[in-house]
Amino acid sequence: MAVVRAVLLLILACQAGPAFAERLVTDISERQIAITSNFKGTTLLIFGAVQQGRVFEGGLADNDIVIVVRGPARDMVVRKKERVAGIWVNADSVTFSGVPGYYAVASNRPLKDIASPELLDRVGIGLEHLSLKVKETKVPEAAIPAFREAIIRQQKNAFLFLSAERGVSLLAQTLFRANLMFPANVPVGDYRVEAYLLKDGRIVSAQSSPLSINKSGIERSLYILAHEAAYLYGLIAVALAVLAGWIAGLVFRKR
Amino acid sequence: MQIYLPIAEISMNVFLVLGMGAIVGLLSGMFGVGGGFLITPLLIFVGVPPAVAVATGANLIVGSSVSGVAAHWRRGMVDVKMGTVLLVGGVAGTGVGIWVFQLLQGIGQVDLMIYVLYVVFLGAVGVLMLYESGRAILRRRAGRPVRRPSRHGLAHKLPLQMRFRKSRLYVSIIPPLVIGFGVGALASAMGIGGGFVMVPAMIYLIGMPTSVVVGTSLFQIIFVSASASMLHSINTQAVDVVLALLLLLGAVVGAQFGARIGAKMQGEQLRAAMGLVVLAVGLGLFFELVARPGDLYEIAVLEE
């Protein structure tokens, strides 16, 4: 099989004509994820194919596919607890900017085998290669990595940072698919789904598509009301509470 | 069965929420406490963000105390006049409490403050109530008459005396005003109605009979927690109505049963039982404060 493929590729490579490289064609199963009252999290299917080109930038090397999903970037503060007079209190803190509220990476084999750390750092592929910029801190430089790791560790525990080293299944070097999980506590906002085709440690083709995750229905209305008509929301909340208590009082009197 | 909470932004089991509400309601009806001192730590424990737990707790207490008052009102056990005096102080205190809450939220110490306040107040109140009621129970067993505690305290000496018929008291309104203010400030900062501080204060500092205290405490808690709930809605936008309504559903039912159980108990037994519950919650929180946390680092999203 490999021999046949190599021969075919050789034939194609020898053909003269306009040069076009291999490129990715991808799609995702949903462009919008709606959070409703029974939202328990969801999975997103990302699939596509490698379109064969005339020019093989990576020579005869195998295709590698990496998929990255990035949630809305936010500022995040990490506080370290310290023991003061016997109690654990928040002491040092570091504020990072551009922390994705959700980040998932999937590849057909371990990232360290696919590309160099420099490339992964530059594009921000892989949990260890995320660029989390320090925005504000009084902590010495040497202590920062521990704070950075805390974000990654805790986001991983909350299933908001995911990494699947063999999460992409690649068929016959052409067709690929990956399932990525979104937990129930996934932040709302605009996401980007990125797909990379790598060959021999170089990015040959990249594609990016938007994904939107938003509350819908009554959840959305309540959230908007709470933030944009806070007085009205407050009054409604109190009125509902009084009503519920009063009705319960009536119900129990009749018994 | 899971339900997504729009403000807390997490998904929770409906029956877990209902059950937590029922426990809180039971205590509320029995002891005249809103139950916030229990629900806020419970909510934080199951993963609700602390700010949402505090604000939603305040909203829950509105409903559970309305339900509790309804039960006590039918027995004529609400001193509206005393409740109103406490309330005047309470509303003023609420504003101060919210201001402190926001100040601490800004410097990232709000969780610590809530914990320390809880531990200090729950511990002190629990120990005091257990001590006093334990002595009263022993005295009754020994066949000696039970004195109403603190009959001639400060409240009888200060000016602005007023008659409170339901409580069978003729006292100055200054102590109730000050107590109301202090409890209001505490309540809004901690997301509670302040009942567990108010009830002992009414019994020991003002000298009201236990039977009237429960209903009267609940009566004024309705208003204090309603204003705290309003202020949280406006300032922190952290009241989750879906969560509050589910908790309420459990709580209002629990409150009715609680009021029935409470009515069958003697004053000092009721105070001893409340002292135990208060102390247990306080101790639990104390251990959480001094035990080494599983992860020394804590992350939080900075809202714009």
Q: Class by helix and strand content of chain A?
A: alpha+beta
Radius of gyration of chain B: 19 Å
End-to-end C-alpha gap of chain B: 33 Å
| Oligomer designation | heterodimer
- Share of helical residues of chain B: over 70%
Strand order of the largest sheet of chain B: 1-2
Largest β-sheet summary of chain B:
2 strands, antiparallel
Instruction: State mean pLDDT of chain A (0 to 100 scale).
Output: 84
Beta-strand content of chain B: 5-15%
SSE order of chain A, one letter for each helix or strand: HEEEEEEEHHEHEEEEEHH
Question: Low-confidence spans of chain B: pLDDT under 50, at least 5 residues?
Answer: none
Secondary structure: elements and pairs:
The complex is a heterodimer of chains A (255) and B (304).
Chain A: H1 2-14, E1 23-28, E2 32-35, E3 42-51, E4 63-70, E5 73-84, E6 87-100, E7 103-107, H2 111-114, H3 117-123, E8 133-137, H4 144-157, E9 161-164, E10 168-171, E11 175-182, E12 189-199, E13 202-215, H5 217-228, H6 230-254
Parallel strand pairs in A: 2-13, 7-9
Antiparallel strand pairs in A: 1-3, 3-11, 4-7, 4-12, 5-6, 6-8, 10-11, 12-13
Chain B: E1 2-5, E2 10-13, H1 14-31, H2 36-45, H3 50-73, H4 80-106, H5 110-141, E3 161-164, E4 169-172, H6 174-190, H7 195-206, H8 210-235, H9 241-264, H10 267-290, E5 297-301
Antiparallel strand pairs in B: 1-2, 3-4
Helix pairs in contact in B: 1-3, 1-9, 2-3, 3-8, 3-9, 4-6, 4-8, 5-10, 6-7, 7-8
Can you describe this structure?
The complex is a heterodimer of chains A (255) and B (304). With 255 residues, chain A is of the alpha+beta class. Helix content of chain A is 29%, strand content 41%. Chain A has a six-stranded mixed β-sheet. A four-stranded antiparallel β-sheet of chain A has the order 1-3-11-10, with no helix packed on it. In chain A, helix 5 packs across helix 6 (230-254). Chain A is flat. By secondary structure, chain B is mainly alpha-helical. Chain B is 70% helix and 7% strand. Chain B contains ten helices and five strands; from the N terminus they run ββαααααββαααααβ. Chain B has helices at residues 14-31, 36-45, 50-73, 80-106, 110-141, 174-190, 195-206, 210-235, 241-264, 267-290, and strands spanning 2-5, 10-13, 161-164, 169-172, 297-301. A two-stranded antiparallel sheet of chain B has the order 1-2. A two-stranded antiparallel sheet of chain B has the order 3-4. The longest helix of chain B is centred in the middle third of the chain and has 32 residues, at 110-141. Chains A and B meet through strand 5, strand 6, helix 4, helix 5 and helix 6 of A and strand 1, helix 3, helix 5, helix 8 and helix 9 of B.
